[in-house]
């Protein structure tokens, strides 16, 4: 009999379904990924992919064409990316009807994301009711935040009645990168003395986290992913009174303000582009708006590095990840310029070298190591799924 060692990782968005088939066998789990891809434009007119069930059938066909159909005995489990776990889900969770019902209750906190995640889980379960389905939540890694970090300074009666608190997101990435940074530097994340790292996840969405001894103690996203750093299209931190002002003075409706802050702000709002490569090209041509957008973006990162240095007390490493963090030497250099007083000394030559793996970009003498650590959320989901399910698989109750 073939040992079941592969995890199918599904990331269901409202209009796309991304998948990776990851083999967890061998000396380097995840080194073999027999299939990966994305089904796009789900539910759009003329796309031919009516819904998530149709999208998963397409995935099944693509997997079969790669010789690893959904009916393959080598499949151990399906690991699902799930966005909002609220306070209910603080770790990877084996999905049953009760879990799906709890996830439904969290929809008001993530109205765009959670329904798509739930749809993805349902269709995968319908196709393979015998397989364990595991949900890995974006919020889970931040469940260790102390109350003084997660609580907003609001009347607790009001806040608690409406589940208003800081949850944090990108947790799967922060978990993976904080551990990989410790490994890169030859440190045990939770070993004696602890390993303290600030992770800067700078993609189209962006967030920072402070991780002490493997536990997240502070993070920049809040009740929703809108808080914190300047992002591709989100404003990040803002005086909440801006919203009242827009409503009263500009006559904007709530949904219009929501769209403005989530979709038309950040880099795109400041300069019309959210791709850091394009912004770099425009700056090289002397474009002032692009320059200002870059400056606002890196200034916010510096503020968080300073704040999280104070939160941690002692920082062993800064780890840059995601599209901008991994690729933009200019952002890393500008964000850390002049931070020698905090023990941070970037090596300009190492920083400018392009590379694909985890690497150190600080000087040998830098008290705080600066690392570039490519994130791998799919591998993290597959690892957490495999660890929960166990190598031989769980014995499941009869299909519900
Ligand atoms: P992610 O959300 O992690 O996929 O990151 C996407 C973002 O990474 C894009 O919007 C770009 O701004 C940025 N990015 C990707 N490649 C590069 C690059 N080579 N240099 C600078 N920024 C990049």
TrEMBL record:
Task: Copy the pathway line from the protein's UniProt record.
Answer: Metabolic intermediate biosynthesis; acetyl-CoA biosynthesis; acetyl-CoA from acetate: step 1/2
The record's EC number reads: 2.7.2.1
Provide the reaction this enzyme catalyses: acetate + ATP = acetyl phosphate + ADP
Question: Its domain of life?
Answer: Bacteria
Is Ligase among the key words of this record? no
Q: Which residues bind substrate?
A: 81
Record-marked site positions (Transition state stabilizer): 170, 234
**Location of the protein in the cell:** Cytoplasm
Gene Ontology MF annotations: kinase activity
The UniProt entry annotates the active site at 138
Main localization of the protein? cytoplasm
Task: Look up keyword NAD and say if it applies.
Answer: no
Q: Which residues take part in binding ATP?
A: 18, 201-205, 275-277, 323-327
InterPro entries according to UniProt? Ac/propionate_kinase, Aliphatic_acid_kin_short-chain, Aliphatic_acid_kinase_CS, ATPase_NBD
Required co-factors: Mg(2+); Mn(2+)
Q: Report residues binding Mg(2+).
A: 11, 377
Q: How is the cofactor bound?
A: Mg(2+). Can also accept Mn(2+).
Pfam families for this protein: Acetate_kinase
Q: What class of enzyme is it?
A: transferase
Quaternary structure (record): Homodimer.
Instruction: Please give the function described in this protein's UniProt entry.
Output: Catalyzes the formation of acetyl phosphate from acetate and ATP. Can also catalyze the reverse reaction.
Task: Read off the NCBIfam families from this record.
Answer: ackA
Q: Which family does it belong to?
A: Belongs to the acetokinase family.
* The name this protein goes by in its record: Acetate kinase
Q: Which organism is it from?
A: Streptomyces synnematoformans
